[in-house]
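QA checklist item 7 of 12: single-chain prediction sanity check.
[x] sequence parsed
[x] length recorded as 138
[x] structure emitted
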Amino acid sequence: MSNLQLFIRHPDEIPLDLEVVERPLAPDATAMPLGLVCRSLAQLECGQQVSISAHGMIYCPNITGRIDWCHPGRGGYELGILFANGEHAMRMRMFEQVCHIRRYRLRMREEQGRLLSEDEAALEWIAKYAALFPANDL
C-alpha cells in the first residue's frame, strides 16, 4: 500500500455483497490512488478479486476490486479493496457517494425526524459534504 493511497470507508448501515470472481481485470500500468474499506462477515484472502454490490440499491454499477488486506474486527473482518483500473475506481467512488447520501437520509430521519426525499437528501449532502469526499485525482 502506497503512502498516497486514500480509502473511502463504506457505511456499515448499508451491507455490501462481495462475491469472489475467478477472472481478474487487467490492471492499468499505474496503481489506482483510491480504495475502499468495508466490513465483511467472511475472511477473504489478499489478492482475491471480488465483485461488489449492495442489496436494495437502485444504482449499483459493475465494480470489481482486489483484496489488499483483511484484518479481524468487530463481528467479522475489515477489508481494504483496491481497483485494477480507473474506471472501476470511479464507479466505486460514485457508488459510495450514493451510499453516503442514503446514510445521510436515514440519519436525518432518525436524529431529527426529518423525512427527506432522495433528491432532497442528495442536494443537502452534496452542499455539506461533496467537497470533502475523497477523489485523489480520479
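[x] summary fact logged: The chain has a mean pLDDT of 85.
[ ] second reviewer sign-off
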